[in-house]
Amino acid sequence: MNERDFADLAVGHALNALSEADERAYQEALAGNPHWDHHVSGAADAVAAISAAVEPVEPPPSVRASLFARISELPQEPVDVAGPEASPSVGDEDFAAAGVASIESERELVAAGVPTASAWGPRRWFTLAASLAAVLILGFGAVSVSQLVSPPASVVALRSIEQAPDAQSASTTLPDGTVATAHWSPSTGQSVLVTDGMPALASDKTYELWFVRGDTPIAAGTFEPDEAGKATAVLKGEMHAGDIIAVTIEPAGGSPDGTPSTAPVVAVATA
Q: Which range among 21-30, 92-101, 164-173, 227-236 shows the weakest confidence by mean pLDDT?
């Protein structure tokens, strides 16, 4: 199994959607390649971030009944791997009828000289897509597959900072209960602001980030919290030691002249 195939399995494992054979293959691959564990944490973090950001929705009974009815109708015969003549082409293969290739079938294909990608590629993606489709239908709403598999850049940046040996953070709590935490790391050159409880703004307003260096504010991008006021926002530009990370309320799109038009609603001292 190559690393790309393992990354696919890691997503299915995070969703608790692997078959018994795939779970066994996943565990064997991880045991033999412990340096691939970043795919495991990445998939788990992505699933956790999405599930935390979306309110669960109870599916109508008809959806569940329809789903299980469709599953019960699928043939369960094993895949015939006797040879090229007995194997349909990738374009014509009925993946739903074929089911998931077992580890034994995989080994037989390898022994016969068939590239492993032919066993793991299309069928793996069909299984993964089916798992994701069930998750989207039964609770995650309009979440794209790319969002599930690939965490947002801000989450990746925060993870990079937290894993850095020189990671630092500072928090402030506002009178209304809003919490803002700045995370930064000189070695990575990144800084991120995480908020919880930021008040919603009118559609013609936005929150803008600033590095306040001495008496000089330096624009560092805009962000929009979710309905709970939560946001993970990467600050654009280089942070200097002692900067204050501030947030102001600006017209949609950010300050028109590059300077704050309001007093900061959040200010996090980093020194």
A: 92-101
Name residue 5's amino acid. D
Distance separating alpha carbons of residues 19 and 59, to the nearest angstrom: 23
- Where in the chain are the domains? 3-149, 153-269
Q: Please provide residue 99's backbone torsions phi and psi, each rounded to the nearest 5 degrees.
A: 80, -165
For the stretch 198-211, pLDDT in tens is 999 999 999 999 99
CA–CA dist 237, 221 (Å, integer) = 9
Burial class (CB in 10 A: 0-12, 13-18, 19+), 29: middle
Residues linked to residue 184 through DSSP beta bridges, in sequence order: 168, 191
For 262, the token pair is: 């309001």
Does the pTM surpass 0.70? The reply is no
Q: What is the gyration radius of the CA atoms in the chain, in angstroms?
A: 24
SS3 of the chain: helix, strand, coil, percent, to 5: 40, 20, 40
Instruction: Show the CA angle centred on residue 65, arms to residues 59 and 66, nearest 5°.
Output: 95
Amino acid of residue 216: T
Q: CA-based diameter of the chain, in Å?
A: 76
Complete edge-to-edge strand list for the sheet that includes strand 190-196: 168-173, 179-185, 190-196, 231-234
Which DSSP string corresponds to 202-221?
-TTEEEEEEEEETTEEEEEE
